[in-house]
Amino acid sequence: MTVYAGIDESGYGPVLGPFVIARTVFSLDRADPGRPPPSLWNTLKSSVCRKNKDRRGRIAVGDSKSLYTPSLGLGCLERGVLSFLNSSGKAPESLDQLLHLTAHDADSSTPEQPWYEDPLGGPALPANSSADDLAACARKLSRAASRTGVVLEDLSTAVVFEDRFNRVVETSGSKANCEWKFVAAHLQAIWERYSHHHPYVAVDSLGGRKDYRGLLATSLAWADVVPTESPDGSPCYRLSDGDRGMHVLFRVRCEEVHLPVALASMLAKYVRELFMLRFRSFWHNLAPDIRPTYGYLPDGNRFIAEIEPLIDRLGIRRETLVRCR
């Protein structure tokens, strides 16, 4: 059995809203464990594609930035994420249920900020898709997966709310180190569960970094870390500890080549934007005349300036609302 995983993030740049780092893990019964895994777009081509619009009604899996804009809405992201979840027997009916199924840790599902509270656990899911279409997609995906020996083993999200983000940045010294902390946590989780199968893990490149050996050796200190060759020269490493091992590849635009990374990108963006629905609803109820925001620069700073009187009046600590970097 080959284990094939991907890690990607959403929300690295904004000044408002959560930063989400996600992982997806697949097992492939019919792949050679000694070689890089095959393209899952090809393996599952009867049910998945790369583009939003497909005449055959297949499920689009790609970089979240190409599948989601505020004007397009969440439909395409939702169709992909929930189809994969539903095909594995999981059908969340709300954001809280989605977090129950995918949260990496307790802090990822229990925000303390009032703008993320929803006593009903909403938004209700699906938020922008047809339940009938999702069911049909899940059946199509299940048939393709069964026929090709592909199993979705795990979907997981580390949700870093603003207060946690600021604490980690202050402790670690940079936003890049904050990102690495949660990428490393996903790598450790994959190692703990799958290292006897020597998983292949693809990670979207972290900024302009070209050497990850030191980071890996520090964060996964029990393993020997040895650079290896990759087909396109991207940084690639072999981690080993006795009979356990893991290959980790870091690649620019990794979601274009590795479906697990693309699906992780979609999951991270989907969870972030569901939380931003709660965020916008909270502030709209308090200040309906203020134009809502998605949290990115420069609009996020415009929004912060306009709600400044409310921040003071409600006694909100800025470090729980506004990111330091």
Description:
The chain has helices at residues 40-43, 64-67, 75-87, 95-102, 131-148, 162-172, 175-194, 213-219, 259-286, 299-306, 308-313, and strands at residues 2-10, 19-28, 48-49, 59-60, 150-160, 200-204, 224-228, 236-241, 244-251. The protein is of the alpha/beta class. The chain has one domain (2-277): 2-Layer Sandwich (Nucleotidyltransferase, domain 5). A seven-stranded mixed beta sheet has the order 5-2-1-6-9-8-7, sandwiched between helices. A two-stranded parallel sheet has the order 3-4. A hairpin with a 7-residue loop joins β7 and β8 (236-241). It starts with a strand and ends in a 12-residue tail after the last helix.
Tally of alpha and pi helices:
11
Q: Class, according to the CATH hierarchy?
A: Alpha Beta
Provide the structure class. Answer: alpha/beta
Number of domains: 1
- What would you give as the CATH superfamily? Ribonuclease H-like superfamily/Ribonuclease H
Task: Give the overall shape.
Answer: globular
Work out the helicity level.
25-40%
How does CATH name the architecture? 2-Layer Sandwich
> Whole-Å distance between the termini?
42 Å
In round numbers, the mean pLDDT is 95
Sheet with the most strands: spatial strand order:
5-2-1-6-9-8-7
**Major β-sheet annotation:** 7 strands, mixed
Q: How big is the Rg?
A: 20 Å
CATH topology value: Nucleotidyltransferase, domain 5
Strand content: 15-25%
H and E string: EEHEEHHHHEHHEHEEEHHH
Q: Enumerate the spans where pLDDT stays under 50 for 5 or more consecutive residues.
A: none
Query: How many β-strand stretches?
Result: 9
